[in-house]
What we know:
Radius of gyration: 17 Å
CATH class of the domain at 17-77: Mainly Beta
CATH topology of the domain at 17-77: SH3 type barrels
Structural class: mainly beta
Shape: globular
Strand content: 35-45%
Helix content: under 10%
Oligomer: single chain
Amino acid sequence: MKKNQKKFGSELVEGSRYLISSLHTRENTLETRGEFKGYVFIGRDQGLRVELDDSHEESGTIRIIPCHMIIHIDVISQMERKEDKEKKSSTYFG
């Protein structure tokens, strides 16, 4: 592992910044750089919701990328995963 490379968890975290390469046409790819805002459903499929950063003309626009179109994801900056504030504990009496 490189000196300033952080350990990456097993899931994408909202607020993190990623560079996502996805299929655009058969011959071209589309690069999306920005802040991950969560997942969305498109019919039965799932997609990533990303707010485009200043490297795009459409800065601030939300782009939805269908998961099956993603080629690779580069982690630019990784946020810490926030734990649920309320840990629900349940007791079963039976």
